[in-house]
Amino acid sequence: MPHPRPWSLLTDAEWSLLAPHLPLTGPGRPIANPRARLDAIFQAVTSTLPWRHTRSAHAPTDTIHRTFRRWAHAGLWSRLLKLAARRRAPGTLRRLVDWLAACHRRTYRILGLPVLALARRLNLPQALPGPSWMLPDPDLSEMVHRAVKWLLTQPLTRASIPYLRTCRALLRTAGGRARIHPSLIPA
């Protein structure tokens, strides 16, 4: 996997692509400088530091994190990641995939399993909050449940026991690991 793009301020071309997708108002009032807010969010998610240690000249850390969470609940990071992952996405937007993946990765604690499913469906492992083989896989789980349901409609014989055991092992795999060592979690 290539090295992720280091943080820098958004270019005018990047801002012009992202601006139409941003909700430019907070609860009750407009965001004073949305471009600076987005720059601060990208700076925070591309660093290895927790939110409380990030600094911005444009807004307090709590405000930046609150904006990030609001935009996550609004589905902004998922929408932008989908746009950037398209085959015919503009090159300017494709250059932001690493930053959008970092934002998407940080929404896992906010949004849960749909974040994992989307990153897997888009084939963007950098948008996953850990190694894919250690994380839950909702799509695999659904597929195995359908197979088990079909198997149970058939008469049970000794020949079906290995299939059921395989399904049980696949369901364990689909559940992911309970703990992931911090060294395996991407920054």
Automatic annotation (TrEMBL):
<dbReference type="Pfam" id="PF13340">
    <property type="entry name" value="DUF4096"/>
</dbReference>
<dbReference type="InterPro" id="IPR025161">
    <property type="entry name" value="IS402-like_dom"/>
</dbReference>
<feature type="domain" description="Insertion element IS402-like">
    <location>
        <begin position="10"/>
        <end position="80"/>
    </location>
</feature>
<protein>
    <submittedName>
        <fullName>Transposase</fullName>
    </submittedName>
</protein>
<dbReference type="InterPro" id="IPR052909">
    <property type="entry name" value="Transposase_6_like"/>
</dbReference>
